[in-house]
Amino acid sequence: MMPAMIVGGRLWTERGTGMKEEARREAARLIADLRLRRGIRPPRGALPPELRPADLAEGYAVQAEARGLIAAGLGRPAGWKVGSTSPGMQAFLGIPYPCAGTLYANRVRRGEARVALQDFFRLGLECEVAVRLGPGIGGAEPEPAALLRHVEAVMTSIEIVEWRWAEDAEAGVATLVADDFFSAGCVLGPDADPVCLAGDAGFSGRMRLDGVERLAGPASAILGHPLRSLAWLAEHLRAQGTPLAPGEVVTLGAVAAPLVVEAPGRVVASFDGLGEVAVVVT
Description:
Elements: E1 4-7, E2 10-13, H1 21-36, H2 56-74, E3 77-83, H3 87-93, E4 99-104, E5 108-110, E6 112-115, E7 123-133, H4 144-148, E8 151-162, H5 168-171, H6 173-178, E9 183-188, E10 204-209, E11 212-218, H7 226-240, E12 249-254, E13 259-261, E14 265-271, E15 275-281
Parallel strand pairs: 3-12, 5-9, 6-15
Antiparallel strand pairs: 1-2, 3-4, 7-8, 7-12, 7-13, 8-9, 10-11, 10-14, 14-15
Helix pairs in contact: 1-2
């Protein structure tokens, strides 16, 4: 059964997939080539009509097909990202429901990272809560309280995102999902005690550019509570046949719209009690 949730008062599901295997493989190859810059640099227009996933289920099928191809260049899959989880982000994207993507080992960094603006078509940075998962997570019930027992650490995270498509609306949400939903990596802060997620998650996060605060919001902006985002992902992945696993990192979503970076600078994100993380853009 596909994951479902209430969106706008209606039950939303991913639906079924009727995409042919050959089309799925060719779409995955094009997605991987785009990510790895093999013969093409973004922005790219929409996929050819015959290769375009028609719904979210087909988008996730292409994402899964592309995973091994992308891992050959970016390292093994190391976890997951959840996007479009806060009101600010959903308004920015025009997508009123969460979407998931893959994190790759060579793009998961700690403390501070340096990135070159010229390496991205359009670079964005997001202030997020991340978790690292512990033993037993694969068999845990996909309910927030049950999942908390299997969270090993909580961290501040900056998700690095890139707009790789000329027009998101033209590409379509299913293609954005196939392309790991803008993901280009993340930077994780120091480990914190998961007990911080036991309450209402009212602790605040903020992002500063060269010392000036540019955005802020409570952790509770993430689907009402970051653990709700983790529960959504757990159910989604269980339906995909790839349940959450110990040691995986999950970035649970941004507290506000992304910071679009157009010039060099130092960006610092922090949450109350969770410490700081930084990205230096050159």
